[in-house]
## 1
Amino acid sequence: MDGRDVNPIPARPDEAQVPKVGVDSWVATHEGRVHRHPVLAAFDRVPRPAFYLGFAIAAALLPAVTSDGYIIRVGFDTLLYMLLALGLNIVVGYAGLLDLGYVAFYGFGAYGYAMLASPKFGLHWDTLGVIPVVVVASAILGFLVALPSRRLLGDYLAIVTLFFGQLFVTIYQNGNRISFLGITRGYDVTGGPNGIPNIDNWDLGGLKIASVTGYYYAALVVFALVLGCVYLVDQSRTGRAWKSLREDPLAAEMMGMPVNRLKLIAFAAGAAIAGLTGTLFAALNTAVFSADFDVPTLIIVYAMLILGGAGSLGGVIIGAVVVNVSLEVLRTPDHATWIFYVLILATLLVKLRPWRVLAVVLGGTIGLGYAFHAIMDAVWPRSTGGASTVGGWLGRALDSWNLHPSTPQTIASVAFVFLILAVLVLTVTHGWVRWLAMIPTLYLAAFVWDNRLVVEPSITRLILIGVILIVLMNARPQGLLGTSRVEIV
Amino acid sequence: MNWNLFVTELVAGITHGAVYALIALGYSMVYGILKLLNFAHGDVYMVGAFIGYGLITVFGGATALSINIALLLVLMFVCAMLGGGLLGVMIERFAYRRLRTAPRIAPLITALGVSFFLENAAQLILGAQFQSYNSFSWKNGELWTKGFTLPGQVHVGIAQVIVVVGAIVLMVALTLFVQRTQTGKAMRATSFDREAAAMMGIDVDRVIVVTFFLGSALAGAAGVFNGIAYQQVWPYMGFQAGLFAFIAAVVGGIGNLPGSVLGGLVIGLAESFATGYLSSTFQEAIVFAILIAVLIVRPSGLLGRAAVQKV
């Protein structure tokens, strides 16, 4: 090279618009390059608060649409889960800390309200007095729990908080004979396995709340207030600091952020929201038991947060609604069967392209079912002796397509193990092998669902929650509404 | 001082500690290599315990064994270790492998999901009730009536001897493997610096698979040991045991194998003395206090070295 540029690089036509210094232009324009469906892109242009307002109005209209106490109760539970997920979102979604003792603060709030407003100790404090006390106490507790692990890696925090949550459940469960080092007599503090019954209703300065609908509105108002606060914090200096901490703690510290203090604030804020939610829970249920604050609740809240997309407020709302409503729907076998087949069909229709593949998989599954049913009916009549749990034409169709053994428990449990293996095999195959392997897998899934999972809804929901966590983390870690990370290498 | 109570709790603590130590070893190995807190490890232990239970049932149940008791024990260990190891490898392959480069929180949440899935799937398949190894009645109680007597009239059953000796044998075997073999050397190198190990031509994927297999096989064996010593198996047994074992690994110094054994003994003894001298409800509080104390005073664990973070 003699120093002369033979082919000078032409000036970029858009040079005037490109940021010159300080911003990695590739990252800055990443959003623009991501292909968005036009409908979704239109949604993106609507300001976020408008969505929240729309949701609040829709939620407020629910009791006007239906007077069914059960539906309103489900709505109330969903609002509670939203509040919980909102608090967890601060700790996990913003600050990136794994808090596995989160429901202990929820329980702390519920028990705190129960102790201060029930005949247990003869205390009947004013609700407007109890709530600030409980919220502040929860925040302090959260601060104390995070304190010993603040300097350590995230994993230690996870284990300390998980163990703290377990410890709390044990304390609540055995709190009916607490004595000081075995010297004094045992005092009954938490009611032990009997919990604390007869808890007072909320009484907001004369405004007594006694009905489910009343609590629904109370929860909605609390949710709106908390959501507003979290939204403002999200936009603030602290919110940005939390997110920088999540993305890269080391870089955040280099930039002069008080990393430890930010972690503790996030923890305390999450705990305070959980405590507040606990008071609502205790007041509506009028009794608290330790089992409500154990690991399953924790995992359900995590599933909501992950499904919606950690760090996204809209995602929290959607995640809580989707998870809680679908878990409720699974309770009745009839609905569970419908949901299963509709979802499978919809997924196949959307995901399987080109249409030839779709036709082969769908036709193959249906054909396989009828053929297999006919063979088994002839060879071993007991394997078709039972009936589908769902009525109507779907039930009749399933009865001649799917096997319903008269005593399905053992065989369906074995089939469940094979189903897991078959699904795992599907994840490592490609192309036509995968499409063909899908046919027996789908049939197996239908068999297991009809014969085993539908009849054990309480276990099925927990299994599904586990599956949601594993699949989402592997396939779409940003959840439904979260934005995927842009890695700068 | 009640000498009898002290020795009884000591023996119980060592037995329990041996089981915790075996589980803690697997936690520690996986953590050392992947920096991943494998919450599902406790559930591998549960599956191992159920494999042992299944074999007892197949061979006629503890009261009417159709084969030699020693043969059955060997068979139980081999099957539980193989089954546990394969399960561990499968979990790694299908749940964790894609997340190696993801933010740290992603594999942790996946691990929670795997643990939750395994527990509830086991409940769906096997039922929620407790099952019993019934080891007290094996060959008219041979496993418990035979044995020897310690000072203070404390009887030590042969079952407890099997647990402690078996655990020691497995630990020695693991140490020899890690220290003496080529693969063990590769494991240590990977644990020290994964990228550098990969650049030196070590097949990191293979090392990780071997690590998961060994760790999970130890957990499967621990499940059978626990069944022999304490009889009961049920789908949720892995959660608490896994938690205690992880704390044992942290207390001993995570990533440090002798540390895990020491930590397991500390946690087992603390738990057993808490049960003996205070009340069984205090065991969690005592273990929690130990964990917090270690984290504050010596965050790298009793035998661990302080990690120097490179920037």
## 2
Amino acid sequence: MTYNPENRRFPLSQHTIGPFFPPGFFQPGDNDLTRYSADATPTEQGEVFILHGNVCKEGRLPVPNMILEMWQADANGRFRSECDPEGDQADPDFIAWGRSWTTMEGDYSFRSVLPGSYEEDGQRRAPHLNVLLMGIGLMKPVTTTLYFPQFAELNAKDPILNLVPEHQRDRLLVQPDGEVDGVPAYRFDILTRGPADEETIFFET
Amino acid sequence: MRNIHTTRLYDPWPDGVEPSVPIEGYTNTWLFTPSQPAIRKPVTRTETTGPAELWRKLICGDGNLAVTSTGKWAQGLYMRVFGQILDEDSRPIPNAVVELWQANAAGRYAHTLDNRRAPLDPNFLGNGRVRSDENGWYEFHTIKPGAYPVPVKDAWWRPAHIHFSVLGPGTLSRLVTQMYFPGDPMNDWDRILNSVGDAAARNRLIATQQHPRDAGTEALGYRFDIVLRGRNATPEA
Ligand SMILES: [Fe+3]
């Protein structure tokens, strides 16, 4: 079917998830991007890492029951999708998506592999993680994109990171934070609302 | 694989379609909603793509919330909620993961955070997850939820509503929304529904009641089509 203006529809409006998102929607392994399900074989491609941190609101008060979803490219910078020209070569064991849920202390965590960089429209994208956050009080999910400090050269050329004023770009870097369960850990704390120079930088499309 | 050009795949949200925040009387929106405007970014590959075979991670069920696995019936008015998951060009979206959660007939959620003085129904959990079929159809069998009050200053009642979370083909087509019931006077007073400024956009959040000749007499029928953003993100069949 080709585009026909008569078929045009408008997307539905967004609404908050409210305070009662069902705990039953979280199963063990949902925050592990390296495997399709808790009992599936994890991918063998890429360097495993843990991303963790907390979510706070106005006044730096930690927020329980916030839902985070993460999406990224595989270790070679490919997405298993028709929208990626090399999508058929993407890692078939890597789902690249996960969901985490903040604890009563506002803490979340993900397990994944370092995403690769890739070329798009003649520009090179630095390795990045797309994070979506939803919860009570957010009438629509907010999204951000996180980068790794060890890829400084790639970061400097990333067209999306370059949309952020230069002095603020560091605020989208995850911070090396030792090891968890024998793999490198990174920390990224989220402040949904606060002073302008501390609030997390969000993007919209 | 076919190369989809990743420019201009998504139309911007028309005015009045997105909820306006913060919402008066809904304190949480003032405490959570970012004070700074989000940075506009173009649509690139990383937004048009999304997890393949997500149902392997988010296990889907049969969508029957009205009867427990041991055959016990929930209390309330039985209803079937169904519809089509579509993109902006009216093309069906197969394999979308559709999550639903709702209050019971007395307006209470089976959730530890809901300690309102209303009865819990031991036979109603009020949540389910299904996968849309090859033509984009989904359906749930459930009961009609009750209204519940929002205990803030200038309190109001939330009209009966159902929460939906839909994971479509791309991360930009991710949708979280709520469905409302036609003809409910409380719809006019609901600050959350009315945070959507455009009347036509609000109407799209209200389900269509099915005539008994179509719905039958076993359960009420409500049709609720769900249109996701992202026209060209839907692979052509
Ligand atoms: Fe609700």
